Amino acid sequence: MEDCIFCKIINGDIPSYKVYEDEVVYAFLDISQATPGHTLVVPKHHVKDIFAYDADLAAQVFARLPKIARAIKASNPKIVGMNILNNNGKAAYQSVFHSHIHLLPRYADDKFSMTFIDNQEAYDEAKYQAVCDAIVAQLANENN
């Protein structure tokens, strides 16, 4: 896609700090470096978000994550964990609409944080089951 910043990075039109590349993905340091080593893994084929993946692309892209994650972790003995994040859609904080996966190394003293809100008090068995049934029905439709 011509206006896509990640496509331009993949094509070499915009410089990047490439850490890995093969026929399927291009991985490079995120310019923000939320923590040292923060890396983006992007499919070379332009795809907007996870909703546009097919099973083959998902298998190929996600199969490469452990190798890249292990290399990041091994690159710095201070790394004690890693978040793997994928934002899909503006409401989920996706800012570049070319699918990308954040590999975010974690350090004992980093200032990065995420908040997961606990809404379990708003759910009873019927509400959990209704949400579950709606998802299961969609999966059954997708398998047909």
Automatic annotation (TrEMBL):
Location of the HIT domain: 5-113
Transmembrane segments: none
Species of the source: Limosilactobacillus ingluviei
Annotated catalytic residues: H100
Lineage start: Bacteria, Bacillati, Bacillota, Bacilli, Lactobacillales
GO terms for MF: catalytic activity
InterPro entries assigned: HINT (IPR039384), Histidine_triad_CS (IPR019808), Histidine_triad_HIT (IPR001310), HIT-like (IPR011146), HIT-like_sf (IPR036265)
Motif (Histidine triad motif): 98-102
GO BP terms: nucleotide metabolic process
CDD domains xref list: HINT_subgroup (cd01277)
Annotated protein name in UniProt: Histidine triad protein
Pfam families per UniProt: HIT
